[in-house]
Amino acid sequence: MRKLVIIPTYNERENISAMIDKVFSLSEPFELLVIDDGSPDGTAAIVRRRQKEFPERLHLIERSGKQGLGTAYLTGFEWGLSRGFDLICEMDCDFSHNPDDLVRLCRAAEQGGDVVVGSRYVEGVNVVNWPMSRLLMSYFASKYVRLVTGLPLHDATAGFVCYSRRALEAIDLHAIRMKGYGFQIEMKYTAWKLGMRLCEVPIIFTERRRGSSKMSSGIFGEALFGVLGLPFRRIRGRAGRA
After folding, report:
1. SS3 at position 216
2. C or N: which end of the chain has fewer Cβ atoms within 10 Å?
3. Are 101 and 23 in contact (CB under 8 A)?
4. H-type helices in the chain, by residue range?
5. Nearby residues of 90 by Cβ (< 8 Å), 6 or more positions away
6. What is the pLDDT along the chain (242 residues), one digit of tens a residue?
7. Is residue 142 within 8 Å of residue 64, measured between CB atoms?
8. How far is CA 142 from CA 81, 134, 150, 155, 203, in A?
9. Which of helix, strand or coil describes residue 80?
10. Are strands 87-90 and 161-164 parallel, antiparallel or unpaired?
11. H or E element, residue 85
């Protein structure tokens, strides 16, 4: 099965080259698509230089300005579907998601999972080096999503996910509205309502060591209030089915 990893970047020059090396050293073959939103620190230039080493496996889309995490992934999903990938994964560039776990997520997808979540909370709380305030916010945000929507996941806000081609082809990607971290919730909820099989694989999430976090109160607020409207929305797939 052809496997693609999508990594959105903004000012990740301290991490991107090491991430490229790590993904391409895994025991299973992955291709990597970096979507850079005009990083002023030269992240895209590093990727272009590394493409000479991996011309068939390393891909780059450059966009002007910060257009949001969700729009980056939607662009990547469309790109991957149009090129015939079977499994499409999303993950952060800062090594908070361990690239070694990509293999485990993809194996769960190969065994029938349409949306495989790298979960911080399915087996207790597996987060390293977060301040207690952020940990509590993240943990109870997932509890809140489950309560409001019924989504059967312990880690609804997770950004380490493997989607099957079947799931992404079923979802009307143009109908996804949220752009920040609420995007992660909306995608999982939409897939679930369309009858996709969701599963969680336990991971250990480690706070970044290099670069700065992109989390903001605005991003969190969009997710908080956007979730309230999800149960009242009529979910339609690409084929128009409810």
Report:
1. coil
2. C
3. no
4. 16-23, 43-50, 69-82, 101-110, 132-149, 165-170, 182-193, 217-229
5. 5, 6, 7, 73, 76, 159, 160, 161, 163
6. 999 999 999 999 999 999 999 999 999 999 999 999 999 999 999 999 999 999 999 999 999 988 889 999 999 999 999 999 999 999 999 999 999 999 999 999 999 999 999 999 999 999 998 888 888 888 898 999 999 999 999 999 999 999 999 999 999 999 999 888 799 999 999 999 999 999 999 999 998 665 555 555 556 667 678 898 899 888 888 865 44
7. no
8. 29, 13, 11, 5, 16
9. helix
10. antiparallel
11. none
Please, is 212 exposed, middle or buried when counting C-beta atoms within 10 Å of its C-beta (0-12, 13-18, 19+)? exposed
8 A C-beta contact, residue 158 and residue 118: yes
Most distant CA pair in the chain, distance: 49
Q: Is the pTM of this model over 0.85?
A: yes
CA separation for the pair 234, 72 (Å, rounded): 24
Q: What kind of fold does domain 3-232 have according to CATH?
A: Spore Coat Polysaccharide Biosynthesis Protein SpsA; Chain A (3.90.550)
Mention every residue, 6+ apart, whose C-beta is less than 8 A from residue 221. none
DSSP-assigned letters across all residues of 7-20 = EEESS-TTTHHHHH
Average pLDDT over the chain reads 92
The β-bridge partners of 128 are 206
Cα–Cα distance for residue pair 150/200, rounded to 1 Å: 16
For tokens 């880690």, name the residue: 155
